[in-house]
Amino acid sequence: MTCVISDMQGSYDKNVTKNFVIKDDVVEKIFDKYASVVIPPGIKEISDYAAYECSKIKKVVIPDSVKKIGEYAFCDCRNLEFITIPDSVESIGAGILLGTAIYNDPQNWDRSVLYVDNHLVDTRNTVSGIYEIKKGTLTIAEGAFMGCTQLTGIVIPDGVKRIEAFTFDGCSSLRSVTLPDSIEYISDYAFLRCKALDSKPSVPKKG
Questions:
Q1: What is the DSSP string of 2-34?
Q2: b/e per residue, 65-78, with b = 16+ CB within 10 A?
Q3: Range of the domain at 130
Q4: pTM for the complete prediction?
Q5: How many angstroms from the chain centroid is the CA of residue 37?
Q6: 111-133, pLDDT tens digit by residue?
Q7: Are residues 140 and 83 part of one domain?
């Protein structure tokens, strides 16, 4: 087990010790030192609360080695106005951009839904009726539609593989769920308190 603190000044060097705490290819902590943060190549995960309340950060670039972004990873980075989320990411925790400049800019929202690249990262609880997630979307963040009591139907596009915990928690009017064949995992807690659903959705059978 190795624990490395690293600084992105040029190429990734495990002997440089300034900007990150890294353990076993996981960024556990991002220090509030620079306006621009480039996550080192080879990193597989960004931990929960990794950059919580880092007010200096304005830009984050995530490499295509990352598969998971933990909950509230960049929450309350109030000046964060740009982030890349590569297609390699398969799981996104709740509230990763809550309280950021990205989250607070109305122009970044599409009908009460916040997308970053090919990922749906958050919604407002004003989403209503039948909502069709954009084609090309690859992940839906944990808890993304939580409390959307006016949502009556959801259409999930091909390419999405996972429905995380609490994604539709409290969607009390949700009656229809259209799943693609690409779905491989549905959390037992994905559809909590969806009292209008006749049965809990399950992973589609292949073949």
A1: -EEEE--SSS--TT--SSEEEETTEEEEE-TT-
A2: ebebbbbbbbbbbe
A3: 114-207
A4: 0.90
A5: 18
A6: 999 999 999 999 999 999 999 99
A7: no
